[in-house]
Every structure is written in C-alpha cells, then in structure tokens.
Design brief:
450 residues; alpha/beta; DNAb Helicase, Chain A; Rossmann fold; 2 domains; 9 strands; Replicative DNA helicase; ATP-binding; nucleotide-binding; ATP binding; DNA binding
Length: 450
C-alpha cells in the first residue's frame, strides 16, 4: 500500500495527478497533449505512473482508454491489483468534469516532478561528498545531472502546414517591405549577409582555418559588428586571455596599430585620442567575454544559459572547438569525443534559440596538397562536424603561402582574404572576398577599402 498523504500541498498534487489522468482517459485532444508533455516518472505515485503508461499504450494501439480497457490491459500485465484494482481506476476517472484548464494541472504535476528530480540529485551529490570522491568529479556529476533536468514542458512540435505557410509569406513580405533587410544577426559584411541573411537563430556555424589565417580576428570582427548593431554577444575564449582579446578589439575599433598598443611606447596625442574614443565605443557594446580555460561542454552550456538570461545574449562565439573538454573518459578516440561535443553545441544552439559560431582547426593535410584551398574533409578530428553544422565557412589568405618577404612587407599591410562558405543548410554557398588590414586585425568589405 502507498503512504498516506497528510499535507495540503501533497493533497493538491495527488488531486492534480488524478485530474490529469482523468482528462487523458476522457478527452482525446487534451489527452494527446498530456501524453506528449509528461512522462510516467513525472507522477509522484507509482500507481499513477502505471496508469499513465497504460493510457499511453492503449492510445498507441488506437484504443480508447476506458476503465474497462485499462483494467483488462493492467490485468494482463499483472499490475491491476498493484494500482488498487478497478475501484481505484473508477476513483481516478471520477475526477473528470471538463478538459478546460487541464494545463494548470499539468503544470502542477510537472513542477513537482522537477522538485523531486532535484532532490534526488542533491542526495546523490551528498553521497558523493561523503564517499570522499574528488571535488572535480562531484562538480562534473552535479552539473551533468542538474542540466539533464528538463525545466520546461515539451510542447508538440507538429504544426499544420497552413499555419507555417502564413508565417513564411509574412516573412517574405517583411523582407520586401524593408528592402531585403537582414533578419538574423548581421555579420557586418555585405556579401556574407546577402548569402546568409544574417546568422539565424538556432544555427550552429563553423568557422575554420589553418593557424595564422586570422580565425580569432575574424570572429572578433563578427562579434563587434553584431554588438555595434545592438546585439548581445557572448565570446568564449579557451585559448586567449580576455585582456588580449579586448586589446585586439581596441586596435580594430580605434585604428591604432596593434604593435603600438602592445609596446605602448611613443604614442602620439592623436593616437591616444583614438584609443580613448575607441574605448568609449567598446564600453557601449554588449559583449560578454569568458576566458576560462579547459571548459567542458556542460559548463559552457550552463554559463551561456545564464549569460542569455542576464545579458540578453543573441549570438555566441567559441574559440575554439578542439579546446572544449568532454565529460568523463568514455570515448575511445578523440574523433568520437569531438563528434559528441559538436552534437551538443548544435543542441545548445537549438535549445537557447541563438546562433553559435564555433571556430575550428583544420588538419595538416591542407599543407601537404599543392592546392591549399581548404575543403570540408580537412576539418580536424571529426567528420561529424560537417554533418552537425548548418553553415561551414573557411578563411583562406593566399598571402599566407607566399614568401615571407611578401607577407610581412610594410608597404603591403592588406591581404585579400577568401571567406569560403562551403556548406549552407538553408541557402546558397559561395566565396566572399574581404580585405584583412593586418596591422589592426580588422577585416572589411573590399568596397570599403579606400
């Protein structure tokens, strides 16, 4: 027998669970929503979990979950006596009056389920602490278990096409009305925005190149361009400290040579004026930098969720993929580990509904070819990146492979750079040419280079 309920809060929960089950038994439409939004383990009593699962099974077999059919099903499974017999089924059924407002009962059941899950996690953490497990392991387990608790009811993703087509046509009308205005987060580069229409919500975007091609500089340019257009930006730097990143941004924004900023010797009054003005511009930007080294993917997810809540983040940059750690040591190869991290980042982008631009290394195979232009097969560690990403971009500077005398020539501080969009799940691909102002770490549209 089950424990007696002796508090008003538990009585409310018990009544809510019975009401949810009763609606699922009597209302086909509301019942479908309930079976979609809840799981057997969301119920506090085992008998209610069993009844819920029985209703679900009958619905999957296209049978109406009447008291008689439920009793037959449970009898066949030898579970009828365990839930209190046909009398208890009748009691649950009697809670149905109307399906109006059933969502309130679902919310009560779901919120209590979250609380119980959290309680179990806390007990587990306490047991780990008492077992003298390493504190790092306790943190990893705590993060993983807490982040695995779903805090929002799963809504039905199925939408009638007649409703979706109205939204699509409305979007086309808006684009026409506003002259093809970018509806995603702008990149700040005219030709890239024409191809992508801006970075779209939920997209996982890979920006890859060989070392010294300017990956970080380009990502910082994209971040600044978004921030200048009043977008909230998160930038995770797993390799470079935040002071160096901000110094790069300051050089780009102020137009003061990055070498002069590093040395800070003999700066002119005019340069100091630019630095001061650049600093004021940067202060107005909503860019949040996290330079924690060795972040694992769950820590990143947790931090980004908090950033979105606290700073209204609309786009995230990660520098770079191969420096992100996974949880535990369950992977038999680095390739499988990176594949798992890639899938998780895609999931995070969808869950938080923001674009994530993730930098990635390329394998050394590029250097062994006569033709150095990167290919998707050059992505380091994982072919799964190619599958997960919505957009894959490569940076390629021909000057990088020229003689060093040419590359470092003071009279040629601008390098033409190809931004190669090799994959675009929802649109066109192509090559966009931009100019890299090497002394300032700044990329600009070629048309703006005067």
């Amino acid at each position: 027998m089950e424990t007696a309920i002796d508090t008003s809060q538990e009585l409310v929960l018990l009544d809510s669970e019975k009401a949810v089950l009763a609606v699922a038994m009597h209302s086909p439409k509301a019942g479908f929503d309930i079976l979609t939004q809840l799981q057997p383990e969301d119920f506090s009593l085992e008998s209610h979990s069993v009844i819920f699962e029985a209703i679900n099974q009958l619905n999957q077999n296209s049978q109406t979950p009447t008291i008689t059919k439920l009793a037959d099903y449970l009898q066949e499974k030898k579970m009828l006596d365990k839930i209190g017999g046909i009398g208890y089924l009748s009691d649950v059924s009697s809670y149905f009056y109307t399906d109006e407002g059933f969502e309130d009962y679902v919310q009560i059941v779901f919120k209590n389920s979250i609380g119980r899950q959290l309680d179990r996690v806390l007990v587990n953490i306490r047991q780990l602490r008492e077992s003298k497990a390493p504190i790092e392991e306790v943190f990893l387990v705590a993060q993983q278990k807490i982040l695995n608790i779903k805090t929002e009811i799963k809504m039905d993703d199925a939408v009638e096409v007649k409703k979706t087509v109205v939204e699509v046509i409305k979007k086309i009308e808006d684009l026409e009305k506003h002259g093809g205005i970018v509806n995603g987060v702008p990149s700040g580069f005219t030709d890239i925005d024409q191809i992508t229409n801006g970075w779209q919500k939920g997209d996982f975007i890979i920006l890859a190149a060989r070392p010294s091609m300017g990956k970080t500089a380009f990502a910082l340019n994209l971040a600044v361009n978004a921030a200048e257009r009043q977008k909230g930006v998160a930038f995770f730097s797993l390799e470079m400290p935040k002071e160096q990143l901000v110094q790069r941004v300051l050089s780009s924004v102020s137009g003061v040579d990055s070498g002069a900023l590093r040395n800070a010797q003999g700066l002119s009054t005019e340069q100091w004026s630019r630095i001061t003005n650049g600093g004021e511009q940067i202060k107005k930007m909503n860019i949040v930098i996290d330079d924690s080294p060795g972040l694992n993917v769950l820590q990143l997810q947790s931090k980004l969720r908090k950033m979105k809540r606290d700073f209204n983040i609309e786009i995230c940059f990660i520098d770079y993929l191969q420096l992100i750690s996974s949880i535990g040591n369950k992977f038999d190869s680095r390739q499988n580990e990176v594949a798992a991290i890639s899938r998780q980042l895609k999931k995070i982008a969808r869950e938080l509904n923001i674009p994530i631009v993730c930098l990635s290394q390329l394998s050394r195979s590029v250097e062994k070819r006569e033709e150095k232009t990167p290919l998707m097969s050059d992505l380091r560690d994982s072919g799964a990146i190619e599958q997960d990403a919505d957009i894959i971009m490569f940076l390629y500077r021909d000057a990088y492979y020229k003689a060093k005398e040419y590359d470092m020539a003071e009279d040629n501080p601008t390098d033409e750079t190809d931004v190669i969009i090799s994959k675009h799940r929802n649109g066109a691909t192509g090559v966009v040419k931009v100019n890299f102002l090497r002394n300032y770490g700044k990329f600009i549209d070629q048309s703006k280079n005067s």
